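EI: anyone free to look at a 544-residue chain?
SC: sure, send it
EI:
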Amino acid sequence: MVITEVLARNAEEYPNDVALIEINPDVTETRRVTWKEYGLVESGSPVAFRREITWRVFDEKANRCANLLLARGIKKGDKVGILLMNCLEWLPLYFGILKTGALAVPLNYRYDSDEIKYCVELADVDVLFFGSEFIGRVEKICDEINRVKFLFFVGDNCPTFAENYLHLAANYSSAAPDIKLTEEDFAAIYFSSGTTGFPKAILHKHRSLMHSCKVEMNHHGQTRKDVFLCIPPLYHTGAKMHWFGSLLSASKAVILKGTKPSQILKAVSDEGCTIVWLLVPWAQDILDAIERGEVSLSDYKVSQWRLMHIGAQPVPPSLVKRWRTVFPNHEYDTNYGLSESIGPGCVHLGIGNYDKVGAIGKAGYGWETRIVDENGNDVVKGEVGELAVKGPGVMTCYYKDEKATEEVLKDGWLFTGDMAEEDKDGFIFLVDRKKDVIITGGENIYPVQIEDFIRSNDSVKDVAVIGLPDHRLGEITCAIIEVKEGKTLTEDDVNEFCRELPRYKRPKKIIFAKVPRNPTGKIEKPKLREKYCGESLVEAQIRG
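SC: here you go
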């Protein structure tokens, strides 16, 4: 079975059950309430914007998307990009693309125009769906991305350089297209980053997507009674692959476009959510808001909330201890994964293993793990080595990058680039990262991109960007800047200069000091981390 068949099954067996709900707390609407007894209609008070679709409508929307693409000549093996904020249209588009046999190519909504262009060209994207938030960015490059045959706008007020997808799709059949798919067909391209900081295109087959469904349900036991609250962006494997458990169990999911503690708790309460996946900053914010008295749990219905699972960055044990004090009846799980291993679950802590909080856990359902030395040999238990994983969810390759593929895929094993050790009970702890990627609030930041930008300042001789431990975000970006002799540079100067960078890439801390390099010219970032952190990030997290 392939994942599109799961959607079709849900539509056939549970056509009128709600599949997806979208809530946007920052947008309000006034509902009109009808009093049937008297036939009166009166204006309701403003409430958060909310939409929902059933499994049948979900499948029909996917079919209309597929039939439109097929009519435009899109065929098996073509690539279709999705550049949208979380919304009710996101997943039907994704499945519509898959139903044609084409590959879905989700794009990070934080990409600027140049990054969008780079990824679209790298992945050979033929069609691009985009939303209103990206009109300016897409317009800037629309004449340069010549391979893209069609630009489909998803939303109101379609720009002149694109076509209105919602109007077009309404004219196409809601019947499933006759395209045969197998688990060995290519399904999607996701993006990661190599040591250069430029995104790599990660190619996955349908078997990867299907395996992630099975992993999620096996780990967290979803049933049709569960309601999953999805907050992270759907372009990321983490959010979507956790939702795959809802797909396989035919259970309801809520897409929440808001991260404030009150918004999360209200969604849990109003929609009866039973499973919530949180990033560390959101969990910290909820606990802090409760402790400060800004929100009161007595105002919300949370008794049905059974599972909080968390991941995307190291989880401080102190956070879990606090959480279990406030929510003593919650089950808890930590998930580890990479886009190269189709997101979360290749390693997971496992519900109930509270005595091992701080570990990322053991091999997940259908997965194997090894910790190896620089020669690829297994290390002795308790020694540090590189974590490698193997299973049905491992990527096929880095698309159009054979050299990079050979560096990380060896005999079916994916070498993660993360350094780890295994305790006597078989639980794996991350020790440090081989790669210099900084994880802040669950998002990857690539230091070389920031370094290259800061180096363009005439007063800068050298610069190194590292991650510093942060209570809320896990890590923050720190720029160590070496100023040219005879030049002056202040922190305010650097902050003003970096205003040209997207906000999330701007350094949160600036240090003026010499940047150490080894004899081959590489920045010695371990020395900088030792000097300015005092200990590795994961050591700090484990210490709690």
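EI: Residues 32-43, 535-544 have pLDDT under 50 and may be disordered.
SC: 👍
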